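Subject — a protein and its fold

Tokens — whole-number codes for backbone shape
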Amino acid sequence: MKPLQLFSFAAAATVLVLMIINSAHAGPGFGLERAPGQPACGSILLGVGDGISVTVSGDFSLWSLDPRESLSIKSGTVIVDAPDESSNWTVVLSCDSPSGQLTEYNGSQNIPYPRKISFPLRVRAEGGNTVDLPAGGELISGQGDAAVSFSLEQRTSWYDQPLPDGRVYRMVVTFISSIEP
């Protein structure tokens, strides 16, 4: 069973922007991508794999990170459409950052000695688990169709620096769904 990559996102200096891709089923009609500065909101069908389809809805277009607030939160919904009501499924998270922190990026590649947001990103599901990155792990599991609210939670500090034009803070977070046999 090949896992279905649900979505990834990137963050600008003080703005979170969602990049949505589906590499497990690349080809016409599968996956959407949002680059820094482009809005990513509404409902987006991310793909179908092994009879399961997953849609993410929410507005991740402008997330201002402010050290005056103890926690910045963006909310969305993962909608799972299972093949039948007896299908057991799981959604697991991973990220590409060894520290779980948003890292400075110049738009085409990571840079040497990058600046990082002080705290790792956390993802919390309503009625599910809280996943601290970079550890990753199971966010939610269920049976049949489901719509589950989740939140992206980012703490910042006064040590987090604004970046020069053309640079962003970035990390790819991957939601992977699978159906249990």
Summary: Confidence is low (pLDDT under 50) at residues 1-39.
